[in-house]
Amino acid sequence: MPHRNAVVAFYDRFGRKQDSQGWYEDPALERMIALGRLAESRAVCEFGCGTGRLAARLLAGVLPTEARYLGLDASATMVALARERLAPWAARAQVLHSDGSLHVPAETGEWDRFVSTYVLDLLAEADIAALLQEAARLLRPGGLLCVVGLTPGRGLLTGAVSRLWSVLHRLHWRLVGGCRPLDVAPLLPAARWRVLADARVAAWGITSQVLVAERRG
Length: 217
Ligand SMILES: C[S@@+](CC[C@H](N)C(=O)[O-])C[C@H]1O[C@@H](n2cnc3c(N)ncnc32)[C@H](O)[C@@H]1O
What we know:
- The chain is 34% helix and 26% strand.
- The chain has 6 helices and 7 strands.
- The chain has helices at 4-14, 22-35, 53-61, 76-85, 125-138, 156-171; strands spanning 43-47, 68-73, 93-97, 111-117, 139-150, 193-203, 206-215.
- The protein has a 7-stranded mixed beta sheet with strand order 3-2-1-4-5-7-6.
- The longest helix is centred in the C-terminal third of the chain and has 16 residues, at 156-171.
- The structure holds S-adenosylmethionine.
- S-adenosylmethionine binds at residues 4, 7-8, 11, 18, 25, 48-50, 53-54, 73-75, 78, 98, 100, 117-119, 122, 177, 179.
């Protein structure tokens, strides 16, 4: 796995180009918005918010008008882009620049959604475990973990595409932004999470996993 600092440096350079990934991300993000019942949320925490594209979509047309949003990213470029994009909602949306650690400086048990899209698939498994613990700390009992990321395809074409993607990731991770196809469901400790939805969404041969899990009380 690439070192955390190298990944952040990559996204500092990649910046606005992240928005061009919508051709395969958007169908999965829309599914996550529906399965995660974001329209009912009052407090959303997003880890690895990138340019703030998902946050703007949520604040503009999904979340109730009184809902608050907290985004966090380790890339200074991404934080600047997200803050600019979310300026119209500055009274209820905040974006923090993190140090790349998996700690989120926010209140325990105060959030009803913990969202992370196309981020867990670039973390090492030990970091994913630490991030899931942090999500459980932040969410109130009954709150929802909403995760989207690349996952192995199950069809002939989608399976071949994800095998090729994994090879590229091993050979030259920057070609694929550090992300690799991953199944996150087995990484969720059953004592802490109840999986409500585990969907596969394929777009143009690329498969994404949409995982929604409830934090147990
Ligand atoms: C593939 S992009 C996805 C961005 C956005 N969530 C989206 O779906 O468009 C990965 C994002 O995770 C951020 N990131 C990577 N490692 C991180 C870490 N350890 N802590 C916080 N953010 C991180 C990157 O800076 C980048 O913005």
